[in-house]
Amino acid sequence: MAQEGFAHPELLADTAWLAEHLNDPNLVVVDTDVAAGYSRGHIPGAVLVPDNFEKDPDTDRTFILSPDKFAAMAEGLGIGDDSLVVTYDSVGGLTAARLWWCLNYYGQTNVKVLNGGWRKWVNEGRPVSFQRTQARAGAKFTATPDPSIHINGDQLIEEHNKPDVVPWDVRSIQEYTGEEMRGNKRGGHIPGAAYLEWLNLHDPETHELKSPAELRRMLEEKGITRDKTIVPH
Length: 233
Known about the structure:
By secondary structure, the chain is α/β, with parallel strands linked by helices. It has two domains: 9-147, Oxidized Rhodanese, domain 1; 151-232, Oxidized Rhodanese, domain 1 (3-Layer(aba) Sandwich), CATH 3.40.250. The protein is 27% helix and 12% strand. The chain is globular and about 50 Å long.
């Protein structure tokens, strides 16, 4: 398995494993690309997430969808409390990992991100569908927020200078330095934040995560270690 050596390999799905389990009755595969990407072809049986930001329009798309709205979205995808969910995208895991986190935040922890995503699936010559998948009806999703995996701005202001807390800035270098604002009121970064852009974590050709040894080396060089509380943002 490609996940061998990771501390939590159960958080990842391998393309070979997924190909063997596509017809499992409790499996929900979610394509987290935009609609145009889904139309270019998708993994057979995959449903399309309606909004790959999962942010609430009532908060000007600043915060995650409320529990009732998120539950409705999940049920619309056929995701229930007993589902096994595999998320994927074509951009190296950015939007797939976002949905993974949102599902975990709302109590659905039986979720995996497809390592290598759409690119690896296609490069291996695996089957592709062009038909829109109808989500399974009758799914019941219970949205129960888990505050232990979330931190708000006020909490971070209080804690970011503690020696055992490492804010990890995963944005582009231009955003980190303040050269690019991306619509923010202020540029720059949290004082003392470690910097390592998320794109550096995967192979740009295959979209697979780099080896566990390489990832550990990169993270340790930035002070991002398992004995610390890490706050990615």
